[in-house]
Amino acid sequence: MATYATAEQLAEYVADNGEVTLPGDADAIERLLQRAERRVDNVLGRYPDNADMGLKLDPESLEDGQSAALARATCASAEHELLVGLDYLAGAEDFLGAGLAPLRPPLRKSPRVLEELAGSGLLLYSGCAAPTPPDEEPAAA
Fold it and tell me: 54 is in which domain, residue-wise?
């Protein structure tokens, strides 16, 4: 069962997008949301996986604004899958025929996921820093 977002939240999220048609089958929507959750987990950063849930975050342990951002990001990822297709997200190439590819193929990751998570404090990124060099002895003259 999907954890980050509900079918109702997804329906509300895509309501104004005329290019998106939700699957008519409740089980298909559930699978769509579960795939979207895993894609959101890949974007979040270096959280340990929650062994009980198989996901990185437990929405019940988050602040309301963070839970809402997580739900919107999940819905954005699901919407993106419906727009570009699961085959494309799985790595299939998009050819127009005769070996032609589109000039600007769609992104494999939804840019709206990051927009929905922005400012929530849920994105973890770490940088690398060079170690501080040890104090060197002055050269003998």
Answer: 7-95+106-117
